[in-house]
Amino acid sequence: MGTVVAVHSYRGGTGKSSTAASLALLAAAGGRRAALVDTDLQAPCAHALFGMDESAAHRSLTDYLVGRCEIEDAAAPVAGSAPGALYLVPARGGPDENNELMTHGYDVGLLREGFDRLMDRLRLDLLVLDTRTGMSNETISALAGADLALAITRADYMDCGVRDAVALASRFARSRRAVAVNMLPAGTPPGPVRREAEAAFGAPVVSVIPYCPDIAALGGGGLLVREDPGHRSTAGYRRIAEAVGTGGITEAAGTGGIAEPAGTGGGR
C-alpha cells in the first residue's frame, strides 16, 4: 500500500508547491513510483515547475472532474525521473477549464475516488497532493484522503492558519501531521525555530530549510533538487523525503523529523 501526502500552506509564498514537487521527484529518483497531483484549480503551478506549458497538457484534473477522462489518463510521465517513475496530473489545460468548473461545478467526492484510483492504476508508492492555499473543498478532500498532512510555514512568519490546517488534519483518523519550516534566514540556528514551530503547531517538524536565493532565481520555473542536487537546501527536501519514505514521523511534538546539520542557515 502506497502513501498519500497532502502538502498544504495557509498562505502563498511559503514554497509549498516547490516542496510538493521536490518530494515527488526525490521519491522517483530513489527508485519509487510517485505521482504529483496539482489540486489548485484556480492558480495551478506544478506544470511550470516541470517545464510544462499549461495549454499543452493532454489531459488534466479538470478533465477528470467534468467527466472527459479517467484520472489516470491525465497522468503525464515526467522525463528524467529514473530509476523510479514520476507522473504529473496538472490541474487544468488552460483558464477556460477553470471557467467551465465555476460555471457547471463538479462532485467534490470525485477527488477522493480519483486519488484512490490513481494509486491503484499506476501502482504508486507515493502520491503527493499539492493543495490550494487557505481552505477550500479541494483542500479538505486532499487532507481527508491523505496518510500524512504536511504543512509548510516560513521561518520568519509562522502563520496561525497553519495551526488551523494541522487541527483540521487531526480530525481525520487516516492522517498523520507534520510541519516543514522553510526560508530560514542566514545565520539563524534551526534548533530554536524547530522548537517554536512544534510548540505553536502541535506537530513534529521534519525539516528546517534555509532561505535560498537560487530557488528565488528559478522563479517558479524549475526545481532546485533537479538543478543542484548537492545544494544545502536540497538536503532539507531530502530530509522530508526520507521521513516520509521510512515512516519516521511521530505525532508527539519534539520527536519527529531528523536533526538539522549544525550551522544550517543559508548558502551552499
Automatic annotation (TrEMBL):
Q: Which UniProt keywords apply?
A: ATP-binding, Nucleotide-binding
Q: Which Pfam families match?
A: CbiA (PF01656)
Among Gene3D superfamilies, the record links this protein to: P-loop containing nucleotide triphosphate hydrolases
Transmembrane segments in this chain: where? none
Q: Does the keyword ATP-binding apply?
A: yes
Query: CobQ/CobB/MinD/ParA nucleotide binding domain: which residues?
Result: 6-218
What InterPro entries does the annotation carry? Answer: CobQ/CobB/MinD/ParA_Nub-bd_dom, P-loop_NTPase, ParA/MinD_ATPase
What is the designated name of this protein? Answer: MinD/ParA family protein
Query: Native species of this protein?
Result: Actinomadura fibrosa
Q: What is the lineage of its organism?
A: Bacteria, Bacillati, Actinomycetota, Actinomycetes, Streptosporangiales
